[in-house]
Design brief:
35 helices, 7-stranded mixed sheet, globular, AAA+_ATPase, 6-stranded antiparallel sheet, T2SS_GspE_N, single chain, alpha/beta, nucleotide-binding
Length: 811
């Protein structure tokens, strides 16, 4: 049992029967939370088993309080533990039924059922179902009767209000799920009895609905329907219900099709949306952020939703049906075979207004002017006017709970998914702002939210980073310390103003991880041995180069990990300090107060160092001091933003470092890139054809040979590849097909691609003579340097990445 379980195991249980009973299945109770926050435990216990409980647990974890969420670490761990148990016990609330985890769980249950059917386990039978059914009939059920499909807006609003205000009075009991299946003739008495019997025999606790689906007794749609009835969620015949044009404007048809949802109406700051799974909290939150309204999910079948979507789409192709004008319904048939033009729609509206004496309404103007091509209402020339007039785009405060929850959930999701950067972006003449994650070097859209939320989101992040929220005209940089999984992570924040008085915020996640061993940075064994020889020299300059985000700092910390020993004094100057290591003195530079890399480096020289790491050589002063330090008996490590090892030497000379000093001081230059790995879960192996191998030979020798290879030399290279990487004279590659693990990309994780230039006597002489980068590159290749492209192609032949990826990484 882990520490969280041990803490929970000693908690008093008498006052919290529902929560205690649920935790008892796992041999734990609520200790620290109950002792320090009894009111919170009371709320969790009273709402246990409903979606309100999940929302409340989310609010505890994602709300903004001083010092992270304001809970001590042990209490926060217990809340996370309780939420995990709730989601495991109530999957209909936690995740969508289309989620791979849910499907895996169903398969797990089917496996257990097969074991029971095969006679592996033997458990006493439960009481006869006839007795249980008699008890069910005799129970005092909730006075709310089973409801039928709703086909009017007024009835829908009444039911929604009942569901929100007083769906289940205090002390009332819900009808059991099996009762609904029996009354609806979805199951027979014997089938339900068999399911209950299986439920008692399974090794772990599973819900009745899960067992019935696993046993193919009911479908997911039937379960959702029964759960909706049981919990008082309105069941709507959306195929025969009038659809509000404004609701569709807020949740466009193309998004509705993708989510299998049908927006119905808007009232009392709520938008009502029909879905086949009204327990999907992620969809509910998504629609809330998209629309700016509180979203109420009601139940309708897949068939009815598809019918409604098709009917509404067809109506927009020539007929605007039942447009609501001040509560009056009118049918407007427009001329033309195709979609009605905006001019026709405006003229039609004008005629109606003149004939009926109806005042103009901005909201109705927007609905009438909508055409087939602007379903999403993503862009419009007059959006700046519409944004000021629309009642939906009201000003949102940075202390709004929705804004706080959005930011905290976004950061949590980014860390959980392994993203390196988060971009909160807003663009002119667009309806929504977007959030993008950079994962494995590629940007992916994670979520969108209404653009009127964006100023509040920016201000909230600025407050978290201790920035000036009133300054919107210039860029600002800050830092956030964020608690995640009992760790404190540093987030680097950059706020930059763009056109139209908008701001873009970028949050970089600085992982507080441990340095990787050198053997784990994907360097070729032969190259690794050469590199180790250079870093173990007592003095000299070793540079790692590459673009931003290519893993240079990670490689340098791997080198420090290799060199770190009790007989060496190591100093580092970094901005910021991303990876912390024991027995190493690490310094954060602060250019704003004049504490620069150069000044830190000069201070290190007076502090008896053996090894010095400078985060980056940015200016002439830092470059000169680094070279001087390497020539006075110190090993100096640093990085530069250059494209190749040969160009790094030219860059140092551009920073006014004398060529003869640079030649004497430099020991080695490592150029590095990061390429995405092919996902091991969905990888497909394929054999390279003869034509593909010929193309690989051309790319492998590009810019490294003064003349083209002969046919014999090309065949010799292919034969070497067959010996080193092939099987039975065949060379295989791998490509990812896309799966749940890699989120459909075909890639999971990244690996290093390297180019190592080691200084020789001839190379030093060439540099001292002021040779060009092209001459240095030719000599390095002649002396055996493997280029970035060559190292990448060999990793393709190993099957760790593919050609498409390396062609993007290595030009």
């Amino acid at each position: 049992m882990n520490n969280v379980s041990q803490n929970l195991a000693q908690a008093p249980a008498a006052s919290y029967p529902n929560l205690s009973r649920a935790l008892a299945l796992y041999g734990v109770e609520a200790k620290q939370l109950a002792a320090q926050y009894p009111r919170i435990v009371t709320i969790i216990d009273s709402t246990w088993g409903s979606v309100d409980c999940l929302h409340y647990l989310d609010s505890l974890l994602f709300s903004e309080r001083p010092g992270r969420q304001g809970f001590p670490t042990d209490v926060l761990d217990e809340i996370v533990f309780i939420k995990n148990i709730f989601e495991f016990s109530h999957p209909q609330f936690a995740v969508s039924r289309n989620d791979p985890i849910s499907k895996n769980k169903i398969e797990e249950i089917r496996g257990h059922i097969q074991e029971i059917v095969s006679g592996v386990e033997s458990v006493p039978e439960i009481a006869s179902f006839s007795d249980m059914h008699a008890k069910l009939k005799g129970r005092v059920l909730n006075e709310k009767k089973p409801q039928h499909e709703i086909d009017s807006h007024q009835t829908l609003r009444n039911n929604v209000s009942m569901m929100e205000n007083n769906a289940y009075p205090k002390g009332a009991k819900r009808e059991l799920l099996g009762q609904y299946f029996l009354e609806s003739n979805l199951l027979s008495d014997s089938t339900l009895a068999d399911a209950l019997n299986l439920q008692s025999k399974l090794r772990t606790r599973h819900l009745l609905g899960e067992i019935l689906i696993a046993d193919h007794s009911i479908t997911e749609m039937q379960l959702n329907w029964a759960l909706s009835r049981q919990r008082g969620i309105p069941i709507v015949d959306v195929s025969n219900l009038e659809i509000s044009a404004e609701a569709v404007r807020l949740i466009p048809l193309k998004i509705a099709h993708a989510k299998h949802a049908m927006p119905i109406t808007i009232f009392d700051n709520r938008i009502v949306v029909a879905v086949a799974n009204p327990f999907d909290s992620e969809v509910q939150r998504y629609f809330s952020f998209l629309s700016g309204y509180r979203t109420i999910l009601v139940y309708s079948s897949y068939e009815q939703i598809e019918t409604a979507l098709s009917r509404y789409t067809e109506s927009k192709r020539g007929v605007v049906n039942h447009t609501e004008l001040n509560g009056t319904k009118k049918d407007h048939r427009l001329a033309g075979n195709g979609a009605a033009s905006a001019t026709e729609l405006v003229a039609s509206k004008k005629r109606i207004n003149e004939s009926n004496g109806i005042e103009k309404s901005d909201r109705h103007d927007q609905a009438l002017n909508q055409t087939e091509d602007d379903d999403a209402d993503e862009q419009t020339d007059d959006f700046s006017t519409a944004i000021n007039e629309s009642p939906l785009l009201k000003k949102i405060d940075e202390n709004d709970e929705t804004v706080i929850g959005l930011i905290n959930k976004t950061i949590n999701d980014a860390i959980r998914l392994g993203a390196s950067d988060i971009h909160f972006e807003a663009f002119p003449r667009t309806r929504n702002s977007q959030i993008r994650f950079r994962k494995d070097g590629k940007l992916e859209v994670s979520a969108t939210y209404p653009i009127n939320f964006h100023p509040a989101v920016v201000s909230r992040i600025k407050i978290m980073a201790s920035l000036d929220i009133s300054e919107k005209r210039k860029a600002q940089d800050g830092k956030i310390t964020f608690g995640y999984a009992n760790k404190k992570l540093d987030l680097r924040v950059s706020s930059i103003p763009t056109s139209n008085a908008l701001e873009v915020v970028t949050v970089r996640i600085l992982g507080a991880g441990k340095p990787l061993p050198l053997s784990k940075i994907s360097m070729h064994p032969e190259l690794l041995e050469k590199f180790k020889l250079q870093i173990n020299k007592p003095h000299g300059l070793i540079l790692v180069c590459g673009p931003t985000g290519s893993g240079k700092t990670t490689t340098l910390h791997s080198v420090l990990r290799e060199l770190n020993s009790s007989d060496k004094k190591i100093w580092t100057a970094e901005d910021p300090v991303e990876i912390v290591q024991k027995n190493i003195s690490q310094v954060q530079v602060l250019p704003k107060i004049g504490w620069t890399f150069a000044k830190a480096l000069r201070s290190f020289l007076r502090a008896d160092p053996d090894v010095i790491m400078v985060g980056e050589i940015r200016d002439s002063e830092t470059a000169k001091v680094a070279v001087e330090a390497s020539m006075t008996g110190h090993l100096v490590l640093s990085t530069l933003h250059t494209n190749s090892a040969a160009e790094t030497l030219m860059r140092m000379m551009d920073l006014d470092v004398p060529a003869f000093n640079l030649a004497d001081a430099t020991q080695a230059i490592l150029s590095q890139r990061l390429a995405r790995r092919v996902c091991t879960e969905c990888a497909e192996r394929f054999e390279f054809s003869a034509e593909e191998l010929e193309q690989l030979v051309n790319e492998y020798t590009l810019n490294t040979m003064e003349k083209s290879l002969s046919k014999q030399e090309r065949q010799k290279m292919i034969t070497r590849w067959q010996t080193e990487f092939g099987e039975n004279s065949c060379i295989y590659g791998r490509r990812g097909l896309g799966c749940a693990v890699c989120h459909g990309t075909g890639y999971n994780g990244r690996m290093g691609i390297h180019e190592l230039l080691v200084m020789s006597t001839e190379m030093r002489r060439l540099i001292s003579c002021g040779a060009s980068s092209a001459d240095i590159f030719k000599l390095a290749v002649k002396e055996g340097m493997k280029t970035l492209r060559q190292d990448a192609i060999e990793k393709v032949l190993q099957g760790t990445t593919d050609l498409a990826e390396i062609r993007m990484v290595c030009i």
